[in-house]
Amino acid sequence: MKKMFFIGALCMGTLFSSNAQISTSTLQNAAKTASTVATASGFDVKSLSSGIMSKLTTVLLLKKTQSPAVASAVTTFLTQKSSILSLAKTDKTAYASKLSGLTDTLKSKLKTALTAEQYTKFLNLKPAQATTANALSQLFF
Question: Contact, 110 vs 73, CB < 8 A?
């Protein structure tokens, strides 16, 4: 009887672990697909983040102690934005709602990382409309 219980438990453990591996693999493939779609649509988080940080560092005169927090906030925002880009074409209302939440979170993080003067300068950097020529527009639109 103990052997039957042990064999049953072993089989169940094998079954659950193989399902977990499939789920992890599936999630990794989905993440790669989302990244590929975002890159194909001209939304490369790494290059956008680099360009934005270069501009923010010079315009806001970021201190070395501020840069990591600002970079983290910008990269997180862009990564999360890239995951909802498909909604911009399929469900504009949901996209606008989610983007608004992401933008609020970004502004909250930046408000704590920047001085009041720097934060005001940041808000004044908002372009009149979204353009591919201005990387900062990705933070506002």
Answer: yes
Short-list 1, 76, 79, CA closest to 34: 79
Positive or negative, the Cα torsion across 55, 58, 64, 69? negative
pTM of the model: 0.65
Cα four-point dihedral sign 81, 84, 88, 93: negative
Distance linking the first and last C-alpha atoms of the chain: 65
Q: What is the DSSP string of the chain?
A: -HHHHHHHHHHHHHHHHHHHHHHHHHHHHHHHHHHHHHHHTT--HHHHHHHHHHHHHHHHT--TTTHHHHHHHHHHHHHHHHHHTTHHHH-HHHHHHHHHHHHHHHHHHHHHHS-HHHHHHHHHT--SS--SS-TTHHHH-
- Return the domain boundaries, the chain: 1-40, 43-140
Mean pLDDT per block of 10 residues along the chain (141 residues) reads: 55 54 50 44 79 91 94 93 89 91 94 94 86 79 80
